[in-house]
Amino acid sequence: MSSPSMALPSPTCPGCGHPTMSSSDASPEPIGYHPRALFAVSSLGLGHATRSLVVIRWFLHRGYAVTLISAGNALAFLRLELEAEPLVTFQELADYPALERGTGWRFYLYLMLDLLRTWRLIRRERRQLQAVAGGYDSIFSDGRYGFHSRWTPSFILSHQIAFIPPHGLAKTAWISERLNLAALRRFDCLLIPDYPHAGANLTGQLAHVAGLQRCSHHFVGILSSYQRLDLAQDIDYLFVISGYLLEHKGSFVRSLLEQAADLPGNKVFILGAVGDTAASYAAFRRPDLQIHTVASGELRQTLFNRARCIVSRAGYTTIMDLVEHDKRAVLIPTPNQTEQEYLARHLGRLNHFVTREQGDDMDIAAALRDCDRTQRIRPPWRTAESLQRIDNAMAPLLHRQRFRIVLPAMGDTARLPAALEGLLGQRYPSDSFDILVVSDGPDDGIADTVRRYAEERPHGPRLRHRAAGRPREGASDASSVDWILFCDAKLSLGPHLLQQLNTWLNRHGKDVAAASTVAFPATSDGLSAWLGFGVQRLKHRLLPASGRVRLVRADLAGLADCGAGPGKDEPPPIKLFRRHGRLRQVPTDQVSRATPVSLG
């Protein structure tokens, strides 16, 4: 992702129709490396899927391979929209239960049971993610709270920070808000699809809450996956009836169909459910009334652009679509869905849309006549600018630090190939790190080994050899990198080490001068080694200056050769860097000893 300073006018993305960063603004990916993004999208309504779609397409245009996790109608919709994309893979994972189901006393019973089940599902998501998080460069969640990782930058898209409690639970609003903020703070950044201005926003009290300052967040603006097409508006009324609370849907759709039959002009219904059958609505079809169970791709875009007026639920994504395209609309919130009820009241009071409650006395013809008296919203910016703001918000956490790995190989030719395999197998852009192998002299066979590996992998990271009396010589010549990583052939490195270091530095690296790491025992080590490891880990956590540096800021690399330990292959004491910045311990599970160790 580009940095905030690269916010330049940009061409149109062929995948989504919205402007994106120009190719000159983004560094080309090195051969053999492809960034990967994980998208976890809620299936509680199609709104999460449709607003995430434009962000997914934008990531694809940037060269990312995308793994998309969702369920139900949302997953089916995204499959239809993205089936032609070769870099997208789909996975189904059960979503949280609908919290607004049931009526009367059953509503409160279901609410308690479903909240408990939701909590359990979030914990399960979290456990399942940790096993695969290292394989992704970023994680993007829309309504799935378990998809955040210690090792990978994690972002969540949400417009609902404050929950509107149902009747009878109004006094618990502050509890739900604080719990939600605590959950959102586990992500690196909260992206809010609304505007920051107190007097010009769409969400009202849902997103503009006092406690938001305790959470890293950015108001990025509205997101709509609809392109603006130059088409005649020959559909007088477009009815878009999606939603996940099916108990309220059947009778509602039939009531609208019956009333639509008496309306003049062309009418089109989109029911928003992939599994729905059109046969049950065949009696309502007429030359001037079309019914689609689902609309995707070009059909979806065309129908929306041709519509003069929209009748829909009061879902927030629908509202963003209406604002993006200056559409007039009648909003009918789903019963018991407090978020939609609040949005309808909020925007109705401002006379931006006509709002009606679902019921037997609902007169859709009168509501449509009132649409001409509403005041359209003039947004400060639209989706194209919102995508740029998402880029700016994510860029600091996706920035690729440049590393130099210094590998001393003092006559240890037997272990060198395994060490080089571990370093060359890093899942990190090859143009963002290089490897410097240091040996005792030019005739120890190590130079030939390094030369052979460099010739076999011409598109890998720069690999070179230097003969020197000390392993740290040559590290100080590091003007082209940001950090020096000291390694040795006795360590086994996992493929995600540089990625984990990069994530930690982007999160916590400000003012850090040097950092230590702890090497896990080898899998073949006995109990004594693991006990010693536990003591060492606790010591380094309490006294970070007691260890030896593995990572040092490049501009301080010259200190690495001062006061080094008694052995040539030992990294320097971390206390040497105390005067130049903070000393930290980097958490990583990618470093272990290649040979058994003992307490001695």
Automatic annotation (TrEMBL):
<dbReference type="InterPro" id="IPR001173">
    <property type="entry name" value="Glyco_trans_2-like"/>
</dbReference>
<keyword id="KW-0808">Transferase</keyword>
<feature type="domain" description="Glycosyltransferase 2-like">
    <location>
        <begin position="405"/>
        <end position="521"/>
    </location>
</feature>
<dbReference type="InterPro" id="IPR029044">
    <property type="entry name" value="Nucleotide-diphossugar_trans"/>
</dbReference>
<dbReference type="Pfam" id="PF04101">
    <property type="entry name" value="Glyco_tran_28_C"/>
</dbReference>
<feature type="domain" description="Glycosyl transferase family 28 C-terminal">
    <location>
        <begin position="301"/>
        <end position="348"/>
    </location>
</feature>
<dbReference type="GO" id="GO:0016758">
    <property type="term" value="F:hexosyltransferase activity"/>
</dbReference>
<feature type="region of interest" description="Disordered">
    <location>
        <begin position="1"/>
        <end position="28"/>
    </location>
</feature>
<protein>
    <submittedName>
        <fullName>Glycosyltransferase</fullName>
    </submittedName>
</protein>
<dbReference type="InterPro" id="IPR007235">
    <property type="entry name" value="Glyco_trans_28_C"/>
</dbReference>
<dbReference type="Pfam" id="PF00535">
    <property type="entry name" value="Glycos_transf_2"/>
</dbReference>
<feature type="region of interest" description="Disordered">
    <location>
        <begin position="455"/>
        <end position="475"/>
    </location>
</feature>
<feature type="compositionally biased region" description="Basic residues">
    <location>
        <begin position="460"/>
        <end position="469"/>
    </location>
</feature>
